[in-house]
Amino acid sequence: MQYFEVSFGNIRNYLQINPKPLKVTIMNVQAPVKKEKYKPSEREADFLAKVENAKYDRQIVAGLQKFIDGKVPDDMKDFYSDEEIKAISDLKGTGRDIEARMPVKITHHYFERARQSAPIRTLIKASPAETFDLAGSEDPGKQMSYSPVEGLIHKYELGLIYVASTCSAHCRFCYREELIAKKEIVREDGSIQAKGLADILELTNYIKEHNKIVEENGGHHPKTGREKLREILMSGGDPMVLANKGIASWWAALSEAGIESIRLGTKELAFFPDRFDDSFFKMVDDFHVAFPETKIRFMIHFNHPDEFLAKDENGNYIDVAGGGLEWVPSTKRAIAEFGKRGWITVDNQAPIIKNINNDPDALRIMQRELRRNKVENHYFFCGRDIVGHKAFNVSIEEAWNILNTSQRGLSGVEAHARLSITHYYGKTEVVAVTNEPMEGVKGGENGVVIFKLLRSAENAPKKGQVAIVGRNPDAIWFDGYKDRVIYDEAGLFSIKA
User: Fold this and answer.
1) How far apart are CA 24 and CA 362, in angstroms?
2) Do the Cβ atoms of 144 and 195 come closer than 8 Å?
3) Residues 154 and 127 in one domain
4) Can you state the angle between helices 396-406 and 360-372, rounded to 10 degrees?
5) What are phi and psi of 302, to 5 degrees?
6) Dist. CA 175–CA 187, nearest whole Å
7) Do residues 158 and 112 make contact, with C-beta atoms less than 8 angstroms apart?
8) Core-most of 98, 135, 295, 301, by most CB within 10 Å?
9) What backbone torsions phi and psi does residue 348 show, to the nearest 5 degrees?
10) Angle between helices 244-256 and 200-216 (to 10 degrees)
11) Which domain covers residue 477, as residue numbers?
12) Residue 368 near residue 308 (C-beta atoms within 8 A)
């Protein structure tokens, strides 16, 4: 008898190519080891006892099959045309299966925004274009090489943790599709690791141990040179799909572990702004009373002004007396509530994506309206070299020109956002694209592109270093410039990006 290891994924793949019955003999099955549970402190327990969970009706449609079968609300039945449905259905079960790359998911609120907006429809509607070219990396920044415990990326001075594996809706360009689609990642050392979620006990133990070692060694870790881990970014998926108690448990545990500043990355203000209700803000206020020393920052993700601005019957934005534009009421309410709490900051960041927001006018409106409503413009991103990225990414130089053009006429506080791209070494700014010729280097006849490392891994040895390359208007990733390097103190082109 032949024995082999199986998983549900292996079984599924086997049955697709071999319809005969599969006989599996399971031997020596051991009961799973019971995980030790995290025990909240007295201060945590007192705070958590005050937190109330609310019920939310997101009116989510998950899965393309519901659109195919007509099992969606009447107003959504024509969201996909018959031709679109057929084109997508024809790819099901093939190597270009669209939902195998990223499942279809949409809230009714976001459908309402999409119905009035071609860019938003592009963002949320599945298309065969997504899988025409599946070249790219599942981990372009090689973040998983900096994952000391499951669900934590400790690459920079802060830690990023995965606390949810889904969102209320799914962006088709999603940079975390490997987490949502439950894919495994090949690490830099060749090992294979699932991109799982963080565990409170395991994570807080890591934070305490790391910070203890740092303190014992004069403020820097003896191996990495890192300082104290004092800031955490909660990500996923979207942490706002968690119940209030789930979010509160993380905030309290992180605070007790010594974290001074907590960021929460979310697109829920676009997908389902009613999530930010009275029960949520009561939890926020109670947390501030219990843990006044901990700062909270929301990193929100608006990609286009159509996600939060109201429109008239002709599809135009609506002017407000005294300046500004009218917002979608539920989104406006949530933003206004954040604005009442001076100890919370709200920052927006978004990639520049083809047929969604590669429009200077749209970005100008978005930056101005967000800052008018106490939201900082943090980063715009060049698209990442992820699997299927060619369906979404604009070139690096085009992205820079779009952002630069969008900021003409903005004030200094409105135009804070920089253009960033993720390299293996760290977050890198696209500082400038010039038009003056520089002879003697490929691409230099059209000018140069200047990159600067904003953040560098571990103790940031390369922070602030630059690279200068001859232009290539077709480049969507660093490898598009590797044959035209002029100067590279940062080493961006000395390794595979």
Assistant:
1) 56
2) yes
3) no
4) 50
5) -90, 125
6) 17
7) no
8) 98
9) -105, 140
10) 20
11) 423-497
12) no
Q: Where are the beta strands (DSSP E) in 114-166?
A: 152-153, 159-162
* CA-based nearest residue to 203, from 128, 143, 148, 136: 148
Q: Where are the beta strands (DSSP E) in 342-408?
A: 344-351, 376-381
Structure tokens at 31: 């009961």
Phi and psi torsions of 376, nearest 5°: -75, 145
Residue 330: is it exposed, middle or buried by C-beta count within 10 angstroms (0-12/13-18/19+)? middle
The crossing angle, in degrees rounded to 10, of helices 278-290 and 244-256 is 10
Count helices and strands (H / E) in the chain: 15, 16
Indicate whether 380 and 484 sit together in one domain: no
Closest by Cα among 26, 27, 33, 29 to 11: 26
Phi/psi region, residue 93 (left: phi>0; alpha: psi -120 to 50; beta: rest), is left
More confident residue, 486 or 24: 486
Domain contains 291: yes
CA distance between the termini of the chain: 46
* Same-domain check for residues 164 and 112: no
In a domain, 404, yes or no: no
Tokens of 297: 């920052």
- Beta-strand ranges (E) seen in 27-141 are 61-62, 105-106
155, 212: one domain: yes
Whether 485 maps to a domain, the answer reads yes
Q: Both 447 and 371 in a single domain?
A: no
- Domain boundary (398, 431, 457) is at 398
Q: Is 406 helix (H, G, I), strand (E, B) or coil?
A: helix
> Please, which residues have CB within 8 angstroms of residue 60's CB and are 6 or more apart in sequence?
105, 106, 107, 108, 168, 169
Cβ pair 368, 411 in contact under 8 A: no
φ and ψ at residue 188, rounded to 5 degrees = -60, -30
Beta bridge partners of 376: 347
Q: Which amino acid is at 370?
A: L
Q: Which is more confidently placed, 450 or 25?
A: 450
Give the model confidence (pLDDT) of 42-89 as tens digits.
Answer: 999 999 999 999 999 999 999 999 999 999 999 999 999 999 999 999
pLDDT, tens digit, for every residue of 411-468?
Answer: 999 999 999 998 888 899 999 999 999 888 888 999 999 999 998 888 888 999 999 9
| Cα separations in angstroms, 285 against 116, 172, 246, 279, 296 | 35, 35, 16, 10, 11
Q: Are 145 and 187 in contact (CB under 8 A)?
A: yes
| CATH number of the domain within which 239 lies | 3.20.20.70
Q: How far is CA 188 from the centre of its chain?
A: 22
How many folded domains does the chain comprise?
Answer: 4
> Does the residue 30 lie in any domain?
yes
